[in-house]
Amino acid sequence: MKSPCRAPVSTETAPSLIRLGPEDLHDCLALDQLALGGLWTSEQWHTELQELRRPCLGLRLQQHLLGVACGWLVVDELHITAVAVDPAQRRQGLGRRLVLALLQEARNLGALHATLEVSATNGAAVALYAACGFRTAGVRRGYYSNGDDALVQWLRIQEAEKVRIAAHS
Prior knowledge:
Layout: E1 16-19, H1 25-36, H2 42-50, E2 56-61, E3 64-74, E4 77-85, H3 94-108, E5 113-119, H4 123-131, E6 135-140, E7 150-156, H5 157-167
Parallel strand pairs: 4-5
Antiparallel strand pairs: 1-2, 2-3, 3-4, 5-7, 6-7
């Protein structure tokens, strides 16, 4: 099993954005454990990585999986199900790169809107999604097993394209 990279990403080497598949299962499980504390089971990851209407993108530096962003396409809406970045690689723009790429992938597959839930207490994730153009549309009280509320966030994917273009300007 390949392990997530533990050294900061070199500015000389940019990670490659890839579409993840079943062959990436072990890397996704390792990153999930490291970054999310084991959010999904092996079976859940297997399903996520196998279905075409569940795009799952990753950033890889050599053999190391640095981050993932996954979602489900339901009619014309992307529901983002997981975003994870190796803790040793955070605050380098990898999460933002992954989310914007996932939104572009969803747009290419016909999605017009995107939604997600994020813990109200996860300031870094809330800031990431805001930087990508998401806005809070509601609150699910006590949504998480620890009792935290979930912020329901929503985005018109066309707006994310403006964020992506501005990020590359």
